[in-house]
Write a structure and sequence with these properties.
By secondary structure, the chain is of the alpha/beta class. The protein has 22 helices and 16 strands.
């Protein structure tokens, strides 16, 4: 974007209550929460106590007006009472990085402006995931709002490959477009782009995946990872780049168009694509959550209603990861992603409700398939002892290629290891790659490339193509890469406490202050709070999940453990150490607080 000046918004993140967790927790969110730590009571060793707040943390608490617990978390993360920390706590669009140094941004804008003036037909082609879909929707709507003749298209898994493949090129040619904009793909599609060029189709590439050394046969290439790109913030997802390009086209045409209406799509694409929630992304997502909570887009409003998400109470990054993104991804996982694009573009509320209902049905089908696949994957890991290996590779005939990303995220989260999950179909297969937060997956794939037909993606998520007869070789290479890149050091952070809940704090105030750290995710991990030696007043099971009431020195708070109901009896009547995320309990309301359990053990 050119500027965010003038935007006013009230941002109140919405935390999931006990009832919402039971109803809405979706295993796909394991791979979307970047990856969120999951409870693992069988982890070796006692829970580590990070210790009491330091004198410096107390001083930071007074300087910033924060609870001791949250100030302690900030201090341990290296923050001080300076302008940078204050900006972190209150990110604004007005502080976005100036886009002037972004390579090919002005060139792309001028070419699109010329196409709009000349009434050229423009094809906009997006990848089939949330980032690709939202990027495609942003570019399509912006160009149409500026008078462009636009045909939106999306990649499909049934085409048999990633990104802009030969079948996709043929679909673009049939539109009669003379200009193509690729969204969230294209960085590695040299052959197809060269073919498009020979057929008289000029291409602008919008992508944030890592850049190959070979020059791209496109007239413009927006990707901050290009070595010659001087734009300093490298973390934008494709949806953020699409918004920035739209603002540049607006300026090139001298038009009056408020770009903030597309921030809801930027928030969804950024969170869903595991982009780092720091710097520009932090400001974009926080503002986008505010736009999303206004419910102005009929499709998202209809989808939120089916997800039982009350937009009026505010929206959080967790809501995107747990409720919105899994639904938008469901059509592309099972069939074609066109339904999700149609939902985002639809302006009629009745038609949007019908599309959302179909997406909800596909979401239910996806859940059933993934639960069967996850069960098979976990049994295979245990049977072969792969949980003891530094990394995990799973490959199986009959697995759904659209679901392997969810399975990989679940396995990586459960075991804290870099994971590849492949759906085999005859002699080859396609797979997804996930890992512990911060582990450089793309670097690991480079080290493992001898076992792969191909791969693409970025450091937080990737896809691979594998020959069936090379799976064992890939497993050995993948484990070697994990060792070389220190995977054990990343997995060891999962389930560990960052800060102790200070007895001097009101838990409700701590929960409120923690919300100022949102949006949390990749690059901005939500602090895990330790509650030590708390007496258990109530221990019960709710649909397989664990629900506790624990007594602090001056308060009683709730605790919720996803899929930990089997621990209920063993914890009843004793004292517990809990590591988790503290949050307001919006279901009970008032000053009620709940801790979402990452790890729980009986206190000695």
């Amino acid at each position: 974007m050119d500027s965010g000046r003038g935007l006013r918004y009230a941002w109140a993140p919405r935390m999931l209550s006990e009832a919402a967790w039971v109803q809405a927790t979706d295993p796909e969110a394991r791979s979307l929460l970047l990856p969120s730590t999951t409870a693992n009571p069988g982890r070796e060793g006692a829970i580590r106590d990070p210790g009491a707040a330091s004198v410096e943390a107390l001083e930071l608490s007074r300087a910033l007006g924060l609870s001791i617990t949250v100030a302690d978390a900030l201090f341990r993360a290296g923050r001080r009472a300076d302008a940078e920390t204050r900006l972190f706590l209150d990110p604004r669009l007005a502080h976005l990085t100036p886009p002037d140094a972004m390579a090919d941004r002005e060139l792309s804008a001028d070419r699109l402006a010329r196409a709009i003036r000349a009434r050229e037909k423009v094809a906009v082609f997006g990848d089939y995931d949330c980032d690709g879909i939202t990027s495609c929707a942003i570019v399509t709507e912006v160009l149409r709002a500026l008078g462009g003749d636009v045909v939106p298209l999306l990649a499909t898994r049934k085409d048999g490959s990633y990104g802009f493949n030969a079948k996709a090129l043929e679909r673009v040619r049939k539109t009669g477009a003379t200009l193509l904009v690729t969204c969230d793909c294209g960085s590695s599609d040299h052959e197809r782009l060269a073919t498009a060029q020979r057929h008289g189709i000029e291409t602008l590439v919008i992508d944030h995946h890592l850049v190959p050394a070979e020059p791209l046969p496109a007239i413009a290439f927006l990707n901050p990872h290009r070595p010659e790109c001087g734009f300093p913030f490298k973390g934008l997802a494709s949806c953020g780049l699409a918004l920035s390009l739209g603002a540049a086209v607006r300026r090139a045409l001298g038009a009056n168009l408020d770009m903030r209406q597309w921030l809801d799509l930027v928030a969804i694409g950024t969170v869903a694509d595991v982009a780092p929630l720091v710097g520009d992304n932090r400001a974009l997502v926080r503002a986008g959550l505010a736009v999303l909570s206004q419910g102005t887009r009929p499709g998202l409003r209809a989808l939120a209603e089916l997800a039982r998400l009350d937009l009026g109470h505010g929206v959080s990054a967790d809501d995107i990861a747990f409720r919105i993104a899994p639904r938008l991804n469901a059509p592309g996982r099972l069939q074609d992603p066109d339904l999700s694009l149609a939902l985002l573009l639809e302006r009629d509320s009745m038609r949007a409700a019908g599309i959302a209902a179909t997406i909800e049905q596909l979401t239910a089908q996806r859940r059933a398939i993934q639960e069967e696949m996850i069960g098979q994957a976990l049994r295979e890991i245990e049977a072969n002892g792969w949980a003891k290996e530094p990394a995990i590779v799973l490959a199986r005939e009959g697995w759904h290629p659209g679901i392997v990303g969810i399975v990989a995220g679940r396995v990586a989260s459960k075991y804290g290891k870099p994971t590849i999950v492949v759906a085999l179909d005859g002699g080859s297969g396609r797979g997804s790659v996930r890992g512990p937060m911060g582990f450089p997956l793309h670097d690991a794939l480079v080290l493992s490339r001898a076992g792969l037909v191909g791969f693409g993606g970025h450091q937080a998520a990737a896809g691979v193509e594998v020959r069936a007869d090379r799976v064992e070789a890939l497993r050995a290479l993948w484990c070697d890469a994990a060792i070389a890149l220190g995977a054990v050091n990343f997995g060891s952070l999962e389930g560990e406490a960052d800060v102790r809940l200070d007895d001097r704090d009101e838990p409700a105030v701590v929960a409120r202050d923690l919300e100022r750290l949102e949006p949390c995710g990749q690059g901005n991990r939500a602090p895990r709070v330790l509650v030590r030696g708390a007496p258990v007043r109530v221990s019960r099971i709710i649909k397989g999940h664990l629900k506790l009431e624990i007594a602090l020195k001056r308060h009683v708070i709730g605790a919720f453990g996803y899929e930990l109901g089997s621990l209920s009896q063993g914890l009843a009547g004793g004292r517990v150490d809990i590591v988790g995320r503290l949050r307001r309990d919006t279901f009970r309301g008032g000053s009620a607080v709940e801790i979402r359990i990452d790890r729980v053990e009986r206190a000695s």
